[in-house]
Design a protein that fits this description.
Strand content: 35-45%
Oligomer: single chain
Order of helices and strands: HEEEEHEEEEEEEHEEEH
Structural class: alpha+beta
Helix content: 25-40%
Shape: elongated
Number of domains: 2
Length: 330
């Protein structure tokens, strides 16, 4: 009876031991993915920023500039692209809406980001755009891959429409979460005017006719939780200028916007809480279950060997028919 139990335990030991690497290297890469219907929003602020007054064409210091960023998954568009791409795809429709302290719009830039749901690598398909201009992303945007590594990544800058390295700068602790700190610097670059201008009647085409150009630079900072690849916090030291042309009335350049953009406190708290929750789900597939199955397999193997060892002497005695001799007396 013990031998039969030992064989059953041995079978389970082999099963769970084999399941351990399968969970980590086969199941996890297929189950861990960004949901196609995800929706999220983020509010950032730049306090004490410099902003251009288009009425006077003079820069002035304002109390606060607010940036609202939204990302909404387009499930139907993702399904259509998946048919030709042959892999799980996520389509994010994003909007970056900037408003001044009076609540009036400063800029409004939409974009569509198409990427692989598992690896976060960009997927090139019709509809990929920034401010209705077709683009071709060659790096990540918004989110890092699952199990982010301590290395530099290529990151797409939507303002400049270019990809540049974002550098790993070290490991830190943010609000009780271990994070990787990344930083990217975009030098002064000539960029397009937004399609929607803050002054009615003025268009990007009409401004371009004056010979005035728009320039931009930023230092982008992200604190990324490496298991999920999700940023828990972000900042930008952002500057924009208008240069040359007749629009500036003889001036060489004028500041359009300059400020240190930071996530608002309530969104920091909610983001950290969400990332902590998702981190446990990813660790379940990459660490808890694989190691648990391996330990369980070893325990079951040890128990089956112990039962076999206990059963062996009695089995051998029964097979040979050996009987212990009785003591003989005079």
């Amino acid at each position: 009876m013990r031998r039969r139990a030992g064989l059953i335990l041995l079978a389970f030991a082999v099963f769970f031991t084999a399941l351990s690497p399968l969970m980590r290297w086969y199941v996890f890469p297929r189950l861990a993915k960004v949901p196609a219907n995800q929706y999220q929003d983020m509010v950032l602020e730049a306090k004490g920023a410099t902003l251009l007054d288009y009425g006077t064409m003079k820069s002035r210091r304002v109390s606060n500039v607010t940036i609202v960023q939204t990302l909404k998954g387009d499930v139907e568009a993702a399904k259509k692209i998946e048919k030709t791409a042959g892999r799980d795809v996520v389509v994010w429709d994003g909007l970056s809406y900037v408003q001044g302290p009076d609540g009036k719009m400063v800029s409004r830039i939409p974009e569509r980001y198409i990427f692989d749901a598992h690896s976060q690598e960009p997927v090139h398909a019709t509809g990929e755009m920034v401010d209705n201009d077709p683009v071709r992303r060659d790096g990540i945007e918004f989110k890092w891959p699952f199990l982010t590594q301590k290395r530099d990544y290529e990151y797409f800058d939507a303002q400049a429409r270019l990809t540049a390295p974002i550098h790993y700068k070290g490991t830190q602790t943010f609000r009780g979460v271990e994070v990787y700190y990344f930083e990217q610097t975009i030098p002064w670059t000539k960029v397009p005017f937004p399609k929607v201008m803050p002054v009615q009647g003025i268009t990007a085409a009409s401004v371009a006719k004056t010979g005035t150009t728009r320039w931009y630079t930023t230092v982008r900072k992200f604190w990324v939780e490496p298991v999920t690849g999700a940023p828990v916090y972000g900042e930008e030291i952002h500057k924009e200028e208008l240069r040359g042309g007749t629009l500036l009335g003889g001036r060489d350049k004028i500041t359009v916007f300059a400020g240190h953009v930071k996530m608002r406190e309530d969104y920091i708290r909610s983001t950290v809480a969400l990332v902590k929750h998702n981190r446990q789900l990813v660790l379940m597939l990459t660490s808890y279950l694989p190691w648990g199955f391996l330990v369980l397999g070893i325990c079951l193997l040890s128990l089956s060997l112990w039962l076999e060892a206990r059963d062996r002497p009695q089995g051998e005695a029964a097979r040979t028919g050996t009987v212990e001799p009785e003591p003989v007396t005079a």
